[in-house]
Amino acid sequence: MSQLNLRGANLDYADLEEAILANTNLSEGSLKKANLSYADLVGAICFKTTITEANLSHAILINSDLSKANLEQANLSQAYITDSYLVDTNLGGANLEECDFTRSYLTGANLTGTNLQGADLSETDLTGTIFYEHQSCALNHKQNEIFFEDQLFSQNYYLVIEDLVSGFLEETALSSSYEDHLPYLERI
Length: 188
Hints:
Elements: E1 139-142, E2 145-148, H1 155-166, H2 182-187
Antiparallel strand pairs: 1-2
């Protein structure tokens, strides 16, 4: 299966392990609890697709569009989601362990309750990304590095900063310049 138009298709509980779905349009469809482990989804369009509790471990989603998709509680461990769009995507509670998001756009994405251990967020745009449920301010991305907005932070945002400094993103690759910001974070 390649270059298919499956827009609006209901593929709940489907076993698509190792399926070749490159350049497939899955927009506005449903893949609840589907098995997409090791699937080739290069260039796939999953705009507004419901992919809750699905298994996408080791899936290849390079140059894909998952904007406004719902991947709540999905398993994306060791998935390759490089050069992709996840704008306003719900990844709440997802397993993102060792997931590669290099050069992707997670603008406005919900990452509350996710496992990001070992994930690679290098060169990723995290503008407006929500890491904590009551976060009032978000991380921004500029010139290949992560920085915090220069303003006063609410009590809830302090929790996010403390989590970052104390290892919430332990072993997560943000960028080589992340360490440069630790003195700034510790001053707050």
